Write a sequence for this structure.
C-alpha cells in the first residue's frame, strides 16, 4: 500500500506529506510552528479561534491551517505582518469578550491565551471589554467552571465526547452568549453522566475549568487526548 | 385521557414516524413545540431518552435556535425582532418600554401568565423595521406608543 503524497511549500521550505494532512500538521512535522488555541492534538479539528490563519499564494483570503488540507503545489506563508495583525486582533477580541483579569486567575502564568498575547505583543485591548457576570459553578466535588473565563474553544466538549465518551458537556445558546453546560443545563454536582474524569480540566487552555484547591500547573495535561488515542490502538497487542 | 397524555401520544407518533433517528432531532423539537407550545426540561429529557442522545446535546440544539421556547409562553405573546435592521431602527427601545410597563424582561411572562415577551432574529421584514409582533399581528414601523396601545388592547380583550 502506497500512501499518496503531496508536495508543497511552507514559508519557502519544500515539504512532502501524506494527502489529506492539514497545513498545521504539515508545518509542525517540518518544524514550523503556527499559533493555535482551539486545536488540540488527539481531538477532532474545530476551526473556531482563527489564531492559525495562514496565507496561500493566489488567494486574497486567509485560511485556518488546522482545518485546511494541503494540496499539491500550494505555497503557504505562516508569518507576515498582515497575519500578525490578524492574530493580535483575534487575541484582543477573545480578551474583550469576557472577564479576563490575569492577576486574579487560577491559570495566571499557565494560560495559553495569556502566553499567546505575550508572544504576539498584545499589551492592550482595542475593543470595549464586556465584563461578564456569568455563573460560576462549584457544585461538583472538585471541578469548577468559571464561564467568565471561557473562550468557547470547545476542547472540553470534544475531550468529554471523543475521549471520555460520555458527552456530558455541550454549548447552550450561541455567539457571545454561548456557555458550556452539563446535561440539561444542570449544576455540575447534579450531572448524571459526568464520570469526574477531569479530562476537561486537563485540556482547558485558560482558567475556565479547574480543580478546586489544586494548582493549575499540576492539573493541566494537554497531551492527554493524544496519549489516550495512541494507547487505544493497543499496538503492543499486534 | 388528559390533555397532556394526548400530547404525549402525538409526540410519540412523531418520533416513531422519524424512526427515532437522532438525525431527526430538529424536526422532532419543532413538532414538539407545536404540540406543547414550548419545550421544558422534562420534555427535552424525554426526547433525549427516546432518541438516545446526550441531554446536553439536545439542550444545546434547543437553545441554539431562538425559535424554540423553553419557558411557558403567556396567553398573549409579544415578539420583538432584534435583527440588525430592527435593532438599528429602535426595536430595543420599544422592547425596553414594554419591559418597564409590564415589569418583565425578555424571555419572561407576567406573573399572571397573561403576557410573554420574546425576541427573535430577523423575521425577513427588514423594509418595515422595526417590526414587533403582538399575538398574530405584525406591527410594521412600530413605535412605543403603537405597541403599548396594541398590547393594552389584546390584554383588555381577555
Ligand atoms: S470530568 Fe470527564 S466526564 Fe465529567 S465533564 Fe469533564 S470530561 Fe466530561
Ligand atoms: S471551558 Fe475551557 S476548554 Fe471548555 S470551551 Fe471554555 S475555554 Fe474551552
Ligand atoms: S487553531 Fe485553527 S482555528 Fe483554532
Ligand atoms: S431585522 Fe427585523 S425584520 Fe429583518
Amino acid at each position: 500500500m502506497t500512501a499518496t503524497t503531496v508536495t508543497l511549500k511552507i514559508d519557502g521550505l519544500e515539504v512532502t506529506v501524506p494527502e489529506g494532512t492539514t497545513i498545521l500538521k504539515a508545518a509542525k512535522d517540518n518544524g514550523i510552528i503556527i499559533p493555535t488555541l482551539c486545536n488540540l492534538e488527539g481531538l477532532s479539528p474545530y476551526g473556531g479561534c482563527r489564531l492559525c490563519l495562514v496565507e496561500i499564494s493566489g488567494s486574497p483570503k486567509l485560511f485556518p491551517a488546522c482545518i485546511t488540507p494541503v494540496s499539491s503545489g500550494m505555497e503557504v506563508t505562516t508569518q507576515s505582518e498582515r497575519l500578525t495583525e490578524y492574530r493580535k486582533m483575534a487575541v484582543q477580541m477573545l480578551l474583550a469578550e469576557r472577564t479576563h483579569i490575569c492577576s486574579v486567575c487560577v491559570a495566571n502564568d499557565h494560560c495559553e491565551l495569556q502566553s499567546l498575547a505575550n508572544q504576539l505583543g498584545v499589551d492592550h485591548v482595542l475593543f470595549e471589554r464586556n465584563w461578564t457576570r456569568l455563573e460560576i459553578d462549584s457544585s461538583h466535588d472538585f471541578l469548577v467552571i468559571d464561564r467568565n473565563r471561557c473562550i468557547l474553544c470547545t476542547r472540553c466538549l470534544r475531550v468529554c465526547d471523543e475521549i471520555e465518551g460520555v458527552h456530558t458537556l455541550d454549548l447552550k445558546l450561541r455567539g457571545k452568549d454561548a456557555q458550556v453546560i452539563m446535561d440539561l443545563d444542570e449544576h455540575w454536582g447534579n450531572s448524571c453522566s459526568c464520570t469526574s474524569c477531569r479530562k476537561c480540566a486537563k485540556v482547558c487552555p485558560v482558567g475556565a475549568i479547574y480543580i478546586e484547591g489544586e494548582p493549575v500547573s499540576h492539573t493541566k495535561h494537554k497531551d492527554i487526548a493524544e496519549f489516550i488515542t495512541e494507547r487505544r490502538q493497543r499496538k503492543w497487542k499486534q | 385521557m388528559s390533555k397532556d397524555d394526548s400530547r404525549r401520544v402525538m409526540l410519540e407518533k412523531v418520533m416513531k414516524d422519524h424512526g427515532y433517528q437522532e438525525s431527526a432531532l430538529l424536526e422532532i423539537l419543532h413538532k414538539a413545540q407545536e404540540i406543547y407550545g414550548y419545550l421544558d426540561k422534562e420534555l427535552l429529557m424525554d426526547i433525549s431518552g427516546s432518541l438516545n442522545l446526550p441531554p446536553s446535546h439536545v439542550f444545546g440544539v434547543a437553545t441554539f435556535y431562538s425559535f424554540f421556547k423553553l419557558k411557558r409562553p403567556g396567553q398573549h405573546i409579544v415578539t420583538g425582532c432584534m435583527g440588525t435592521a430592527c435593532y438599528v431602527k429602535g426595536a430595543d427601545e420599544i422592547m425596553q418600554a414594554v419591559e418597564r410597563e409590564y415589569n418583565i424582561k425578555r424571555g419572561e411572562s407576567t406573573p399572571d401568565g397573561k403576557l410573554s415577551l420574546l425576541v427573535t432574529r430577523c423575521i425577513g421584514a427588514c423594509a418595515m423595521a422595526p417590526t414587533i409582533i403582538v399575538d398574530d399581528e405584525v406591527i410594521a414601523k412600530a413605535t412605543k406608543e403603537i405597541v403599548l396601545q396594541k398590547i393594552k388592547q389584546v390584554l383588555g380583550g381577555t
